[in-house]
Amino acid sequence: MFIIITIITTLLISELSTIKSLELRANCGFPGKPYRSKIIPEEKSVYDEGETVSFQCSDYWSPPQMRKCVNGVWVGPPARCGNFVNNVELNDAKLLDMSFGLPIEKFHYRNINLTSMEKYLPNSFLSHRYPKHRLRVTNDHEFMWKLNFTRPAVKLFVRVNFNFINFTLLDQAIKNNFSFYIDVEISPYRTCNLDYQNSNAWNDNGNRIDSYFTCEAHSYEDLQRDLENPNNYMIMRTKSSHNLPHELVAIFFGNVYGNDSEPICGEPETDFGQTYRVRQEHRDYIIDCLDSQWKDATPNTYKHFINHQKCIGDMIWNGTKPKCIPIRNCPIQKILNNNRRNFNENDTMDKNPLIVDSILRYYNFIENQTIYAIDGTEIVYACASVDYILVGKDTRTCKRDMTWSGIEPVCKSE
Ligand SMILES: *[C@@H]1O[C@H](CO)[C@@H](O)[C@H](O)[C@H]1NC(C)=O
Ligand SMILES: *[C@@H]1O[C@H](CO)[C@@H](O)[C@H](O)[C@H]1NC(C)=O
Ligand SMILES: *[C@@H]1O[C@H](CO)[C@@H](O)[C@H](O)[C@H]1NC(C)=O
Ligand SMILES: *[C@@H]1O[C@H](CO)[C@@H](O)[C@H](O)[C@H]1NC(C)=O
Ligand SMILES: *[C@@H]1O[C@H](CO)[C@@H](O)[C@H](O)[C@H]1NC(C)=O
Ligand SMILES: *[C@@H]1O[C@H](CO)[C@@H](O)[C@H](O)[C@H]1NC(C)=O
Ligand SMILES: *[C@@H]1O[C@H](CO)[C@@H](O)[C@H](O)[C@H]1NC(C)=O
Ligand SMILES: *[C@@H]1O[C@H](CO)[C@@H](O)[C@H](O)[C@H]1NC(C)=O
Protein backbone atom coordinates (compact mmCIF):
# COMPACT_ATOMS: atom_id res chain seq x y z
CA MET A 1 0.00 0.00 0.00
CA PHE A 2 2.69 2.41 1.02
CA ILE A 3 4.63 1.74 -2.20
CA ILE A 4 1.61 2.44 -4.39
CA ILE A 5 1.02 5.73 -2.70
CA THR A 6 4.64 6.68 -3.22
CA ILE A 7 4.46 5.95 -6.92
CA ILE A 8 1.30 7.99 -7.39
CA THR A 9 2.86 10.89 -5.55
CA THR A 10 5.93 10.75 -7.74
CA LEU A 11 3.82 10.74 -10.87
CA LEU A 12 1.86 13.74 -9.71
CA ILE A 13 4.93 15.69 -8.81
CA SER A 14 6.63 15.00 -12.12
CA GLU A 15 3.50 16.07 -13.94
CA LEU A 16 3.28 19.26 -11.95
CA SER A 17 6.88 20.10 -12.55
CA THR A 18 6.52 19.86 -16.31
CA ILE A 19 3.14 21.55 -16.61
CA LYS A 20 2.23 24.70 -14.83
CA SER A 21 -1.38 24.76 -13.75
CA LEU A 22 -3.83 26.90 -15.64
CA GLU A 23 -4.24 30.27 -14.00
CA LEU A 24 -7.88 31.37 -13.85
CA ARG A 25 -8.67 34.96 -13.00
CA ALA A 26 -12.38 35.68 -13.17
CA ASN A 27 -14.08 39.01 -12.56
CA CYS A 28 -16.26 39.77 -9.55
CA GLY A 29 -19.17 42.16 -9.40
CA PHE A 30 -20.09 44.70 -6.74
CA PRO A 31 -19.26 43.51 -3.19
CA GLY A 32 -22.21 45.28 -1.58
CA LYS A 33 -21.93 48.40 0.53
CA PRO A 34 -23.34 49.00 4.00
CA TYR A 35 -25.31 52.15 4.64
CA ARG A 36 -23.02 55.04 5.69
CA SER A 37 -19.81 53.31 4.76
CA LYS A 38 -16.93 53.68 2.36
CA ILE A 39 -15.35 50.98 0.25
CA ILE A 40 -11.57 51.02 0.38
CA PRO A 41 -9.47 51.32 -1.77
CA GLU A 42 -12.20 52.08 -4.30
CA GLU A 43 -15.79 51.45 -5.24
CA LYS A 44 -16.25 49.81 -8.65
CA SER A 45 -18.84 47.65 -10.34
CA VAL A 46 -16.27 45.10 -11.55
CA TYR A 47 -13.24 43.78 -9.67
CA ASP A 48 -10.37 41.52 -10.72
CA GLU A 49 -9.49 38.16 -9.25
CA GLY A 50 -7.53 38.56 -6.02
CA GLU A 51 -8.63 42.13 -5.29
CA THR A 52 -9.61 42.81 -1.71
CA VAL A 53 -11.83 45.52 -0.35
CA SER A 54 -12.43 46.74 3.15
CA PHE A 55 -15.31 48.75 4.51
CA GLN A 56 -15.06 51.82 6.67
CA CYS A 57 -18.16 52.53 8.72
CA SER A 58 -19.04 56.10 9.62
CA ASP A 59 -20.80 55.62 12.93
CA TYR A 60 -20.49 52.54 15.11
CA TRP A 61 -16.77 51.76 15.32
CA SER A 62 -16.68 48.54 13.50
CA PRO A 63 -13.82 46.06 13.34
CA PRO A 64 -11.97 45.65 10.04
CA GLN A 65 -14.19 43.90 7.51
CA MET A 66 -12.60 42.52 4.38
CA ARG A 67 -13.79 40.68 1.31
CA LYS A 68 -11.73 39.12 -1.43
CA CYS A 69 -12.60 38.30 -5.04
CA VAL A 70 -11.86 34.60 -5.59
CA ASN A 71 -12.89 32.77 -8.74
CA GLY A 72 -15.64 35.24 -9.49
CA VAL A 73 -17.23 35.39 -6.04
CA TRP A 74 -16.73 37.55 -2.99
CA VAL A 75 -15.27 35.57 -0.11
CA GLY A 76 -15.95 36.76 3.43
CA PRO A 77 -19.24 37.63 5.09
CA PRO A 78 -21.18 40.60 3.69
CA ALA A 79 -20.07 43.75 5.47
CA ARG A 80 -22.36 45.49 7.93
CA CYS A 81 -22.19 48.81 9.68
CA GLY A 82 -24.46 49.98 12.46
CA ASN A 83 -25.67 52.84 14.49
CA PHE A 84 -24.65 53.58 18.07
CA VAL A 85 -27.21 52.60 20.68
CA ASN A 86 -27.98 55.73 22.64
CA ASN A 87 -29.15 56.29 26.21
CA VAL A 88 -28.37 52.83 27.50
CA GLU A 89 -26.13 53.44 30.49
CA LEU A 90 -24.44 51.17 32.97
CA ASN A 91 -26.58 51.05 36.10
CA ASP A 92 -25.36 48.10 38.13
CA ALA A 93 -22.00 46.32 38.04
CA LYS A 94 -21.06 43.20 39.92
CA LEU A 95 -17.77 41.34 39.62
CA LEU A 96 -17.47 37.69 40.62
CA ASP A 97 -14.23 35.75 40.92
CA MET A 98 -15.02 32.32 39.48
CA SER A 99 -11.71 30.61 40.24
CA PHE A 100 -12.76 28.90 43.45
CA GLY A 101 -15.79 26.82 42.59
CA LEU A 102 -18.14 29.16 44.41
CA PRO A 103 -18.33 32.66 42.93
CA ILE A 104 -16.71 35.26 45.19
CA GLU A 105 -18.03 38.79 44.94
CA LYS A 106 -15.24 41.34 44.41
CA PHE A 107 -17.42 44.41 44.07
CA HIS A 108 -21.00 45.39 43.48
CA TYR A 109 -21.82 48.99 42.56
CA ARG A 110 -25.51 49.82 42.44
CA ASN A 111 -27.35 52.80 40.94
CA ILE A 112 -24.31 53.91 39.04
CA ASN A 113 -25.04 57.42 37.83
CA LEU A 114 -22.71 58.17 34.93
CA THR A 115 -21.77 61.80 34.40
CA SER A 116 -22.99 63.55 31.29
CA MET A 117 -21.74 62.24 27.99
CA GLU A 118 -21.03 65.44 26.07
CA LYS A 119 -17.92 65.33 23.92
CA TYR A 120 -17.86 61.51 23.83
CA LEU A 121 -19.21 59.10 21.24
CA PRO A 122 -22.49 57.54 22.38
CA ASN A 123 -21.39 54.93 24.90
CA SER A 124 -22.91 52.80 27.62
CA PHE A 125 -19.95 53.11 29.93
CA LEU A 126 -16.75 55.13 30.07
CA SER A 127 -14.47 55.03 33.11
CA HIS A 128 -14.16 58.84 32.80
CA ARG A 129 -17.87 59.09 33.42
CA TYR A 130 -17.64 57.14 36.65
CA PRO A 131 -14.86 58.69 38.73
CA LYS A 132 -16.22 57.20 41.97
CA HIS A 133 -14.89 53.67 41.43
CA ARG A 134 -12.65 51.80 39.07
CA LEU A 135 -14.01 48.58 37.65
CA ARG A 136 -10.69 46.86 38.18
CA VAL A 137 -9.35 43.32 38.35
CA THR A 138 -5.90 42.68 39.75
CA ASN A 139 -5.01 39.15 38.71
CA ASP A 140 -5.35 36.40 36.13
CA HIS A 141 -8.35 34.66 37.69
CA GLU A 142 -11.46 33.88 35.75
CA PHE A 143 -14.09 36.56 36.32
CA MET A 144 -17.75 36.97 35.62
CA TRP A 145 -19.06 40.49 35.17
CA LYS A 146 -22.77 40.95 35.74
CA LEU A 147 -23.81 44.28 34.34
CA ASN A 148 -27.14 45.88 33.78
CA PHE A 149 -28.20 49.05 32.13
CA THR A 150 -30.72 51.83 32.53
CA ARG A 151 -33.03 50.56 29.80
CA PRO A 152 -33.59 47.46 27.70
CA ALA A 153 -32.52 47.66 24.06
CA VAL A 154 -31.84 45.43 21.08
CA LYS A 155 -28.12 45.15 20.45
CA LEU A 156 -26.34 43.70 17.45
CA PHE A 157 -22.80 44.94 18.06
CA VAL A 158 -20.82 45.15 21.27
CA ARG A 159 -17.45 46.66 21.82
CA VAL A 160 -15.67 46.37 25.18
CA ASN A 161 -12.39 48.11 26.01
CA PHE A 162 -10.07 47.09 28.83
CA ASN A 163 -6.89 48.81 29.89
CA PHE A 164 -3.98 46.67 31.12
CA ILE A 165 -2.07 48.89 33.49
CA ASN A 166 1.74 48.95 33.27
CA PHE A 167 1.67 46.66 30.27
CA THR A 168 4.46 48.61 28.59
CA LEU A 169 6.77 47.81 31.52
CA LEU A 170 6.57 44.06 30.86
CA ASP A 171 9.33 42.02 29.22
CA GLN A 172 8.99 41.77 25.46
CA ALA A 173 8.71 37.96 25.72
CA ILE A 174 5.73 38.24 28.06
CA LYS A 175 4.13 40.92 25.90
CA ASN A 176 4.40 38.65 22.89
CA ASN A 177 2.66 35.85 24.73
CA PHE A 178 -0.04 38.02 26.24
CA SER A 179 -3.66 37.16 25.61
CA PHE A 180 -7.02 38.19 26.96
CA TYR A 181 -10.01 35.90 26.85
CA ILE A 182 -13.39 37.59 26.81
CA ASP A 183 -16.91 36.57 25.92
CA VAL A 184 -20.17 38.44 26.27
CA GLU A 185 -23.83 37.59 26.47
CA ILE A 186 -26.59 40.13 25.96
CA SER A 187 -29.72 38.17 25.11
CA PRO A 188 -30.92 34.57 25.28
CA TYR A 189 -31.88 34.92 21.62
CA ARG A 190 -28.43 35.86 20.35
CA THR A 191 -24.90 34.52 20.42
CA CYS A 192 -22.07 36.99 20.49
CA ASN A 193 -18.99 36.12 18.47
CA LEU A 194 -15.68 37.84 18.90
CA ASP A 195 -14.88 39.37 15.52
CA TYR A 196 -11.69 41.11 16.35
CA GLN A 197 -9.38 42.26 19.14
CA ASN A 198 -6.88 45.04 18.82
CA SER A 199 -4.63 46.83 21.20
CA ASN A 200 -3.49 50.42 21.51
CA ALA A 201 -1.04 52.07 23.81
CA TRP A 202 -2.98 53.98 26.46
CA ASN A 203 -2.46 55.88 29.69
CA ASP A 204 -1.03 54.37 32.93
CA ASN A 205 1.68 52.79 30.73
CA GLY A 206 -1.28 50.78 29.67
CA ASN A 207 -2.32 48.72 26.76
CA ARG A 208 -5.95 49.01 25.77
CA ILE A 209 -7.43 45.82 24.38
CA ASP A 210 -10.62 46.48 22.43
CA SER A 211 -12.84 43.47 21.75
CA TYR A 212 -15.50 43.64 19.03
CA PHE A 213 -18.47 41.31 19.00
CA THR A 214 -21.38 40.71 16.66
CA CYS A 215 -24.38 39.16 18.39
CA GLU A 216 -26.33 37.20 15.79
CA ALA A 217 -29.88 36.09 16.44
CA HIS A 218 -30.17 32.29 16.31
CA SER A 219 -33.05 32.45 13.84
CA TYR A 220 -35.54 34.87 12.39
CA GLU A 221 -38.00 33.76 15.10
CA ASP A 222 -35.47 34.45 17.85
CA LEU A 223 -34.82 37.85 16.33
CA GLN A 224 -38.55 38.62 16.62
CA ARG A 225 -38.49 37.48 20.26
CA ASP A 226 -35.56 39.75 20.99
CA LEU A 227 -37.32 42.69 19.29
CA GLU A 228 -40.48 42.07 21.30
CA ASN A 229 -38.69 41.59 24.57
CA PRO A 230 -35.24 43.16 24.60
CA ASN A 231 -32.93 42.86 27.60
CA ASN A 232 -30.97 45.26 29.75
CA TYR A 233 -28.17 42.98 30.95
CA MET A 234 -24.73 41.96 29.81
CA ILE A 235 -22.78 39.05 31.23
CA MET A 236 -19.11 39.01 30.47
CA ARG A 237 -16.47 36.38 31.23
CA THR A 238 -12.84 37.39 31.21
CA LYS A 239 -9.44 35.92 31.90
CA SER A 240 -6.09 37.52 31.39
CA SER A 241 -3.14 35.28 30.51
CA HIS A 242 -0.94 37.21 32.97
CA ASN A 243 -1.21 38.68 36.42
CA LEU A 244 -1.69 42.28 35.45
CA PRO A 245 -4.15 44.81 36.86
CA HIS A 246 -6.74 45.67 34.23
CA GLU A 247 -9.93 47.64 34.21
CA LEU A 248 -13.02 48.10 32.18
CA VAL A 249 -12.76 51.45 30.41
CA ALA A 250 -15.58 51.48 27.89
CA ILE A 251 -18.65 49.70 26.55
CA PHE A 252 -20.31 50.60 23.25
CA PHE A 253 -23.43 49.04 21.81
CA GLY A 254 -24.47 49.19 18.18
CA ASN A 255 -27.62 48.24 16.34
CA VAL A 256 -29.16 48.33 12.89
CA TYR A 257 -29.76 51.51 10.93
CA GLY A 258 -33.40 52.41 10.47
CA ASN A 259 -35.57 50.66 13.00
CA ASP A 260 -36.18 47.12 14.10
CA SER A 261 -39.07 46.54 11.71
CA GLU A 262 -37.46 48.33 8.79
CA PRO A 263 -33.69 48.06 8.92
CA ILE A 264 -31.50 49.91 6.42
CA CYS A 265 -28.79 47.80 4.77
CA GLY A 266 -27.23 50.01 2.08
CA GLU A 267 -26.55 48.60 -1.38
CA PRO A 268 -26.75 44.89 -2.16
CA GLU A 269 -24.03 42.65 -3.54
CA THR A 270 -24.43 41.80 -7.22
CA ASP A 271 -22.55 39.22 -9.24
CA PHE A 272 -20.67 40.29 -12.30
CA GLY A 273 -23.30 40.24 -15.06
CA GLN A 274 -25.97 41.67 -12.76
CA THR A 275 -27.16 45.14 -12.00
CA TYR A 276 -29.65 46.58 -9.53
CA ARG A 277 -32.47 49.08 -9.60
CA VAL A 278 -33.72 50.90 -6.54
CA ARG A 279 -37.16 50.03 -5.35
CA GLN A 280 -36.68 51.62 -1.96
CA GLU A 281 -33.34 53.22 -1.35
CA HIS A 282 -30.98 51.25 0.94
CA ARG A 283 -33.74 48.70 1.61
CA ASP A 284 -35.18 47.07 -1.45
CA TYR A 285 -33.58 46.50 -4.84
CA ILE A 286 -34.54 44.75 -8.06
CA ILE A 287 -31.70 42.62 -9.42
CA ASP A 288 -31.51 42.29 -13.21
CA CYS A 289 -29.07 40.87 -15.70
CA LEU A 290 -26.64 43.59 -16.72
CA ASP A 291 -27.98 44.67 -20.10
CA SER A 292 -29.26 43.29 -23.38
CA GLN A 293 -26.03 41.29 -23.67
CA TRP A 294 -26.99 39.10 -20.71
CA LYS A 295 -29.96 36.86 -20.02
CA ASP A 296 -31.40 35.01 -17.08
CA ALA A 297 -30.75 31.27 -17.32
CA THR A 298 -32.96 30.31 -14.38
CA PRO A 299 -35.07 27.35 -15.50
CA ASN A 300 -38.87 27.58 -15.39
CA THR A 301 -39.20 31.20 -14.41
CA TYR A 302 -42.28 32.87 -15.67
CA LYS A 303 -41.71 35.92 -17.75
CA HIS A 304 -42.61 38.63 -15.31
CA PHE A 305 -40.88 37.25 -12.24
CA ILE A 306 -38.99 40.00 -10.47
CA ASN A 307 -35.85 39.18 -8.52
CA HIS A 308 -35.40 41.42 -5.58
CA GLN A 309 -33.28 41.73 -2.52
CA LYS A 310 -34.81 43.14 0.60
CA CYS A 311 -33.12 44.27 3.79
CA ILE A 312 -34.47 42.32 6.75
CA GLY A 313 -33.67 41.55 10.39
CA ASP A 314 -30.13 42.34 11.46
CA MET A 315 -29.42 44.10 8.15
CA ILE A 316 -29.36 40.93 6.07
CA TRP A 317 -30.19 40.91 2.35
CA ASN A 318 -32.88 38.37 1.54
CA GLY A 319 -34.56 37.43 -1.70
CA THR A 320 -33.74 36.00 -5.10
CA LYS A 321 -31.26 36.82 -7.84
CA PRO A 322 -31.28 35.99 -11.53
CA LYS A 323 -28.70 33.58 -12.90
CA CYS A 324 -27.19 35.72 -15.61
CA ILE A 325 -25.18 34.41 -18.53
CA PRO A 326 -23.82 36.36 -21.49
CA ILE A 327 -25.87 35.88 -24.63
CA ARG A 328 -22.83 36.15 -26.89
CA ASN A 329 -19.35 35.07 -26.05
CA CYS A 330 -16.06 34.13 -27.66
CA PRO A 331 -15.74 30.39 -28.26
CA ILE A 332 -13.48 29.00 -25.59
CA GLN A 333 -14.59 25.44 -24.94
CA LYS A 334 -12.58 24.01 -27.83
CA ILE A 335 -9.51 25.90 -26.72
CA LEU A 336 -9.90 24.53 -23.22
CA ASN A 337 -10.51 21.00 -24.44
CA ASN A 338 -7.39 21.09 -26.55
CA ASN A 339 -5.41 22.65 -23.79
CA ARG A 340 -2.38 20.45 -23.04
CA ARG A 341 -4.63 17.53 -23.86
CA ASN A 342 -2.64 14.45 -23.18
CA PHE A 343 0.54 16.27 -23.95
CA ASN A 344 2.15 14.42 -21.14
CA GLU A 345 0.29 11.23 -21.67
CA ASN A 346 2.65 8.40 -22.47
CA ASP A 347 5.23 11.10 -23.10
CA THR A 348 4.64 11.28 -26.83
CA MET A 349 5.99 14.47 -28.22
CA ASP A 350 3.93 14.55 -31.36
CA LYS A 351 1.04 16.17 -29.48
CA ASN A 352 0.58 19.92 -29.69
CA PRO A 353 2.67 21.45 -26.91
CA LEU A 354 0.75 24.75 -27.04
CA ILE A 355 -1.11 25.30 -23.78
CA VAL A 356 -3.25 28.01 -22.29
CA ASP A 357 -1.34 29.46 -19.39
CA SER A 358 -4.02 31.77 -18.05
CA ILE A 359 -7.50 33.11 -18.68
CA LEU A 360 -8.07 36.62 -17.44
CA ARG A 361 -11.16 38.73 -16.80
CA TYR A 362 -13.64 36.12 -17.83
CA TYR A 363 -17.09 35.49 -16.44
CA ASN A 364 -17.44 32.49 -14.16
CA PHE A 365 -21.02 31.23 -14.10
CA ILE A 366 -21.03 30.06 -10.52
CA GLU A 367 -23.97 27.66 -10.86
CA ASN A 368 -21.98 25.17 -12.88
CA GLN A 369 -18.52 26.74 -12.93
CA THR A 370 -18.69 27.50 -16.64
CA ILE A 371 -16.11 29.82 -18.12
CA TYR A 372 -17.52 32.45 -20.49
CA ALA A 373 -15.13 34.54 -22.56
CA ILE A 374 -16.65 38.00 -22.92
CA ASP A 375 -15.58 41.35 -24.30
CA GLY A 376 -12.13 41.95 -22.78
CA THR A 377 -11.37 38.40 -21.69
CA GLU A 378 -7.77 37.42 -22.43
CA ILE A 379 -6.18 34.04 -22.97
CA VAL A 380 -2.46 33.78 -22.53
CA TYR A 381 -0.64 30.94 -24.26
CA ALA A 382 2.61 29.22 -23.39
CA CYS A 383 4.53 26.13 -24.47
CA ALA A 384 4.30 23.08 -22.29
CA SER A 385 8.00 22.56 -21.93
CA VAL A 386 11.26 24.42 -22.25
CA ASP A 387 12.08 22.42 -25.36
CA TYR A 388 9.80 24.73 -27.29
CA ILE A 389 9.64 28.40 -28.01
CA LEU A 390 6.45 30.30 -28.62
CA VAL A 391 6.18 31.95 -31.99
CA GLY A 392 3.55 34.66 -32.35
CA LYS A 393 1.66 36.79 -29.84
CA ASP A 394 1.09 34.97 -26.57
CA THR A 395 -2.16 36.81 -25.80
CA ARG A 396 -5.51 36.84 -27.57
CA THR A 397 -8.35 39.09 -26.51
CA CYS A 398 -12.06 38.50 -26.89
CA LYS A 399 -13.29 41.38 -29.00
CA ARG A 400 -16.64 43.17 -29.08
CA ASP A 401 -17.69 41.16 -32.11
CA MET A 402 -17.07 37.97 -30.11
CA THR A 403 -14.06 36.80 -32.04
CA TRP A 404 -10.55 36.34 -30.74
CA SER A 405 -7.94 38.90 -31.75
CA GLY A 406 -4.92 37.77 -33.75
CA ILE A 407 -4.11 34.17 -34.48
CA GLU A 408 -3.13 31.25 -32.33
CA PRO A 409 0.63 31.19 -31.69
CA VAL A 410 2.64 28.02 -32.27
CA CYS A 411 5.29 26.19 -30.31
CA LYS A 412 8.39 25.30 -32.28
CA SER A 413 11.06 22.97 -31.02
CA GLU A 414 14.42 24.63 -30.69
C1 LIG B 1 -27.39 61.56 38.63
O1 LIG B 1 -26.51 62.67 38.60
C2 LIG B 1 -27.11 63.88 38.16
C3 LIG B 1 -26.03 64.92 38.12
O2 LIG B 1 -24.93 64.48 37.42
C4 LIG B 1 -28.23 64.24 39.09
O3 LIG B 1 -28.87 65.43 38.62
C5 LIG B 1 -29.22 63.11 39.20
O4 LIG B 1 -30.21 63.42 40.16
C6 LIG B 1 -28.52 61.84 39.59
N1 LIG B 1 -29.48 60.74 39.57
C7 LIG B 1 -29.55 59.82 40.53
C8 LIG B 1 -30.56 58.75 40.35
O5 LIG B 1 -28.81 59.84 41.49
C1 LIG C 1 -29.59 44.57 37.95
O1 LIG C 1 -28.86 43.49 38.48
C2 LIG C 1 -29.09 43.24 39.86
C3 LIG C 1 -28.21 42.12 40.29
O2 LIG C 1 -26.87 42.47 40.11
C4 LIG C 1 -30.53 42.90 40.08
O3 LIG C 1 -30.76 42.73 41.46
C5 LIG C 1 -31.39 44.03 39.57
O4 LIG C 1 -32.73 43.69 39.68
C6 LIG C 1 -31.07 44.32 38.13
N1 LIG C 1 -31.82 45.48 37.68
C7 LIG C 1 -32.60 45.46 36.64
C8 LIG C 1 -33.31 46.74 36.31
O5 LIG C 1 -32.72 44.47 35.91
C1 LIG D 1 2.60 50.61 37.69
O1 LIG D 1 3.98 50.75 37.80
C2 LIG D 1 4.36 51.83 38.67
C3 LIG D 1 5.85 51.96 38.57
O2 LIG D 1 6.49 50.72 38.69
C4 LIG D 1 3.89 51.52 40.08
O3 LIG D 1 4.22 52.60 40.95
C5 LIG D 1 2.40 51.35 40.05
O4 LIG D 1 1.93 50.96 41.34
C6 LIG D 1 2.00 50.30 39.05
N1 LIG D 1 0.54 50.29 38.97
C7 LIG D 1 -0.17 49.20 39.19
C8 LIG D 1 -1.64 49.36 39.14
O5 LIG D 1 0.33 48.11 39.44
C1 LIG E 1 3.09 31.31 26.50
O1 LIG E 1 1.82 30.98 27.06
C2 LIG E 1 1.56 29.60 27.11
C3 LIG E 1 0.17 29.39 27.69
O2 LIG E 1 -0.63 30.51 27.55
C4 LIG E 1 2.61 28.89 27.97
O3 LIG E 1 2.36 27.50 27.95
C5 LIG E 1 3.99 29.19 27.40
O4 LIG E 1 4.97 28.62 28.25
C6 LIG E 1 4.21 30.67 27.31
N1 LIG E 1 5.49 30.96 26.67
C7 LIG E 1 6.34 31.86 27.15
C8 LIG E 1 7.61 32.07 26.38
O5 LIG E 1 6.12 32.48 28.16
C1 LIG F 1 -39.59 52.36 10.85
O1 LIG F 1 -39.12 53.22 9.82
C2 LIG F 1 -40.06 53.39 8.75
C3 LIG F 1 -39.38 54.20 7.68
O2 LIG F 1 -38.58 55.21 8.18
C4 LIG F 1 -41.30 54.04 9.29
O3 LIG F 1 -42.23 54.19 8.23
C5 LIG F 1 -41.90 53.15 10.36
O4 LIG F 1 -43.01 53.79 10.93
C6 LIG F 1 -40.87 52.88 11.45
N1 LIG F 1 -41.42 51.90 12.37
C7 LIG F 1 -41.31 52.02 13.66
C8 LIG F 1 -41.89 50.91 14.49
O5 LIG F 1 -40.75 52.98 14.18
C1 LIG G 1 -36.70 35.77 2.26
O1 LIG G 1 -36.91 35.66 0.87
C2 LIG G 1 -37.65 34.52 0.49
C3 LIG G 1 -37.66 34.43 -1.00
O2 LIG G 1 -38.02 35.64 -1.59
C4 LIG G 1 -39.04 34.61 1.09
O3 LIG G 1 -39.77 33.46 0.77
C5 LIG G 1 -38.92 34.72 2.61
O4 LIG G 1 -40.18 34.90 3.18
C6 LIG G 1 -38.03 35.88 2.99
N1 LIG G 1 -37.79 35.84 4.43
C7 LIG G 1 -38.12 36.82 5.22
C8 LIG G 1 -37.83 36.60 6.65
O5 LIG G 1 -38.62 37.85 4.81
C1 LIG H 1 -1.20 5.86 -22.48
O1 LIG H 1 -1.86 5.58 -23.70
C2 LIG H 1 -2.82 4.53 -23.62
C3 LIG H 1 -3.35 4.28 -25.01
O2 LIG H 1 -3.66 5.49 -25.69
C4 LIG H 1 -3.92 4.92 -22.65
O3 LIG H 1 -4.89 3.89 -22.54
C5 LIG H 1 -3.30 5.17 -21.29
O4 LIG H 1 -4.30 5.63 -20.40
C6 LIG H 1 -2.18 6.20 -21.41
N1 LIG H 1 -1.49 6.32 -20.12
C7 LIG H 1 -1.48 7.41 -19.37
C8 LIG H 1 -0.68 7.36 -18.11
O5 LIG H 1 -2.09 8.42 -19.67
C1 LIG I 1 -24.14 25.81 -17.40
O1 LIG I 1 -25.43 26.37 -17.38
C2 LIG I 1 -25.78 27.13 -18.54
C3 LIG I 1 -27.11 27.76 -18.28
O2 LIG I 1 -28.03 26.87 -17.78
C4 LIG I 1 -25.77 26.23 -19.77
O3 LIG I 1 -26.07 27.00 -20.89
C5 LIG I 1 -24.40 25.60 -19.91
O4 LIG I 1 -24.40 24.70 -20.97
C6 LIG I 1 -24.01 24.89 -18.62
N1 LIG I 1 -22.64 24.43 -18.74
C7 LIG I 1 -22.27 23.22 -18.38
C8 LIG I 1 -20.81 22.89 -18.55
O5 LIG I 1 -23.04 22.41 -17.89
TrEMBL record:
SUPFAM superfamilies: Complement control module/SCR domain. It holds the Pfam family Sushi. SMART domains: CCP. Keywords: Disulfide bond, Signal, Sushi. InterPro entries: Sushi/SCR/CCP_sf (IPR035976), Sushi_SCR_CCP_dom (IPR000436). It comes from the Eukaryota. Residues 1-21 form the signal peptide. Residues 26-83, 328-413 form the Sushi domain. Coiled coil: none annotated. This is Sushi domain-containing protein.
